[in-house]
Amino acid sequence: NVTSIYGSLEVVNTSLISFSPLWKLQRLCNPSVNGTTLVVRSNLNLRSIYLHNLNHTLSNSPIHIRNNPTLSLSSDDCERINRSAEVLTTGNKQNCRGFIKLSNYCSYLIVLVEVFLEFFGMGIDPTIAQIVALLALFAHLVYGENDETSNVTHEELFEVLSGLEIIAGSL
């Protein structure tokens, strides 16, 4: 009955043949700077990860799925896990091929807003909504649309921050 994991899930050196106990899992989130949400390593009998309900992964470090000699990762599995976190797969019977990090900082914000709403109920205070919108605007201005740091000078950054401070002060 697990639907969300906030932190890290490590499946290492087990006798599992599938992830069937986690079939309801919808969200893996680890917003820590160096944390990954998922490590699957050295499971000799693992054949399937079966995470068909997984909608969001939030991880600042790559997800590692390695050295599981009987695990065949389908393209659906790879796409589902790779929605907003980089996936590194090696040493499995079938690895993910050609996947790169698909996310941008806006997708991270979407996941964070969902987590926020889950903890604080369905309604959201308009002030909080405005703050989230300001953060999304800031992320867009600093990081652009392609997950690459834009060429923003310190002066431009401080100008944007000053503008956001003025807007936030009026809330």
From TrEMBL:
UniProt cross-references to SUPFAM superfamilies, sorted A to Z: L domain-like
Top-level lineage group: Eukaryota
One Pfam family linked to the record: Recep_L_domain
Entries under InterPro entries matching the protein: Rcpt_L-dom, Rcpt_L-dom_sf
The Receptor L-domain domain, residue ranges: 1-76
Protein name: Receptor L-domain domain-containing protein
Protein species of origin: Necator americanus (Human hookworm)
Organismal lineage: Eukaryota, Metazoa, Ecdysozoa, Nematoda, Chromadorea
